Amino acid sequence: MCGIVGYVGPRDAYPIIITGLKRQEYRGYDSTGVALINDTGLHVFKKKGKVAELEQSLLGKPVNGNIGIGHTRWATHGEPSDVNAHPHQSNNGKLAMIHNGIIENYAQLKSELTKKGYSFKSETDTEVLLNFIEDIQKNTQSPLEEAVRIALKRVSGAYVILLLDQDNPDTIIAARKGSPLVIGIGKGEHFLGSDATPMLEYTKEVVYVNDYEIAIIKAGELILKNLGNERQMPYISSLDLELAAIEKGGFDHFMLKEIYEQPSTIYDCLRGRLDAEKGTITMKGIQDNIEALINAPRYIIIACGTSWHAALEAEYIIEELCRIPVEVEYASEFRYRNPIVNKGDVIIAISQSGETADTLVAIEKAKEQGAFIFGIVNVVGSSISRASHAGAYTHAGPEIGVASTKAFTAQLTVLMMIALKIAKEKGTIEQSRYIELLVELENIPEKVDAILKNGDLLKPIAQKYKDAINALYLGRGYNFPIALEGALKLKEISYIHAEGYPAAEMKHGPIALVDTNLPVVFVATKDEYHAKIVSNIQEIKARKGKVIAIITEGDDIIPAMADDVFFVPPANEVVAPLLSVIPLQLLSYYIGVLKGCDVDKPRNLAKSVTVE
Ligand code: G6P
Question: What was the pLDDT predicted at 338?
Fold first, then answer.
């Protein structure tokens, strides 16, 4: 969702900005633009569509200059169009600004500015904020940074903004609240991004700007201030990310690459933590807070999207192994209702990006009520990781495909380790079962690898069902969250409407949809519900629905009744979701590709949802 890039230093800014924008395309966007200052002044170029289209349209244009900003816009206020694309220019034409976020009180500001004679070309909240800044600058005769500071004190909502000022051609002013902003420190140069991808080949030193901070950035100087105008000490972090990690590495799409990376990402997640031979799980965030975690009367897990499905899986696992009550909440609901958070309750926040606005605000809300926050996050240094009291990284590496795959299995892996560790410390698991599950978890990467080696078997199944209008995904117990995730993947990637349901609950509604055209995907690996799910399959077959079943090798009951089956290796039911989700990811991928969909960047979706 909206990406920002900036550069100031001795190099040509434009190629750095275009490459940076391309690397942030995964965040999701519908239009794009750049602003540069050179000898001939401030230049703004913007366009609906892809970064490559903008680049093409700028051949031969004056895109030279050593300072610039760039933007990918995901529409909130105003449809995707050339005019609504960023950067915007202020009424006097001297300021250019890009913005990620939403200015909630823009209507009021707009009416005040309109009365003063300001006019607006776009429908965006961004143009309103920009002219508000210009107006303050004009009235107070103060430097731009001061005008920005005053303006932001009156603004409600979330933002990252980057500004260029034709009269101060050596400076970028940046500010953030609620949306990510990373500044890369080079030698006599600075890079800006919504994440670190635009600066990877130039520097490993970065500053993650905090909420309510303003940065005044010149080639060789970075000044950070808070909204109270006090100087802040930039905290420099070291990046542990290589360029290769954000490239496709020979795969047709990032999504496929990331699906195929899962044996190693799950392994990386387990590495150094789980040792089945010694019977240990080493997780500092858990160990340091073990009393709070063991004695918690309740866990509340908050998340969005695919991460919410990981949360639901965690509910099944933690309640089973640790006997601690778990509630799973959509962050967007939790933040606005009046939830009860009791003393000692632990909040677990799960997020791939670590930037999801709803999750971030839900955390703040729980913190206000005195809760202990444990973050499970993939992106190192992200806002949620910093807002948590303790946590565990998922170590899946950068996930570029908008639809989450490897980050999901890494979340499940971390959650399983956490559940096992807490169960062991709490004494709610027998030693033999504990060791059995450690061994099972340790064997998962190899089994995922085996599934992926058979991945091509899903291609004919994808071909057969690619024209479906609807699909139903059913599972029971540990496989119910996987049914939800399978349905979400299909929706996201192929635009086929899909519903996930508990297999038995299907009788209370979705069964009405069953006809000869409806594919019903059963997640039916061997577990204690196997006989029950066999009955559910028969109920679908009795109504002539088409059954695709994900089943365990050796199952000779379901193949006799299903239209199509895909086998996964046997595994204990607690860890089996890590296997059963893999063919569902691949099935969605193949269907999406067959339908000609943009699988890495599905329409309207964003990787990092930084607005509520
Ligand atoms: C977006 C992404 C999903 C992701 C969800 C939550 O919708 O497209 O893939 O699951 O946000 O994001 P988070 O980064 O908090 O896990």
Answer: 87
Q: What is the DSSP letter of 513?
A: G
Q: What pLDDT score does 467 carry? A: 96
Residue 1 has pLDDT above 80, yes or no: no
CA of 355 to the centre of ligand 1 (A): 9
> Among the atoms of ligand 1, which is closest to the Cα of residue 306?
10
> Residue whose CA is closest, atom 1 of ligand 1?
607
Q: How far is the CA of 402 from the centre of ligand 1 (A)?
A: 8
Q: Is the CB of 76 under 6 A from ligand 1?
A: no
> Is 2 annotated in the active site?
yes
Q: Are residues 144 and 64 in the same domain?
A: yes
Q: Are residues 568 and 581 in the same domain?
A: yes
Same domain, 319 and 350: yes
- CA proximity to 601, closest of 401, 405, 407, 406: 401
pLDDT tops 80 at residue 331: yes
Print the domain residue range for 429: 248-442
User: How many angstroms separate the alpha carbon of residue 306 from the centre of ligand 1?
Assistant: 6
Write the residue with the smallest CA distance to atom 4 of ligand 1: 305
Residue 612 clears pLDDT 80, i.e. is over it: no
> Which residue, 218, 244, 270, sits at the end of a domain?
244
Does the annotation mark 607 as catalytic?
yes
pLDDT band at 372 (very low <50, low <70, confident <90, very high): very high
**Predicted TM-score (pTM) of this structure:** 0.84
Burial bucket for residue 542 (CB in 10 Å: 0-12, 13-18, 19+): exposed
Q: Does ligand 1 lie within 6 Å of residue 351's CB atom?
A: yes
Q: What is the CA radius of gyration of the chain?
A: 25
**Do 15 and 154 belong together in one domain?**
yes
Query: Judging by beta carbons within 10 Å of its beta carbon (0-12, 13-18, 19+), is residue 39 exposed, middle or buried?
Result: exposed
Asked if residue 208 belongs to a domain, the reply is yes
Domain count, the chain: 3
Do residues 194 and 264 share a domain?
Answer: no
CA angle 248, 250, 253 (to 5 degrees): 50
Q: Whose CA is nearest to atom 15 of ligand 1?
A: 351
List the CATH number of the domain containing 470.
3.40.50.10490
Pairing of strands 299-303, 346-351: parallel
The CATH number of the domain where 42 resides is what? 3.60.20.10
Scan for tokens 């009795």, then name that residue: 542
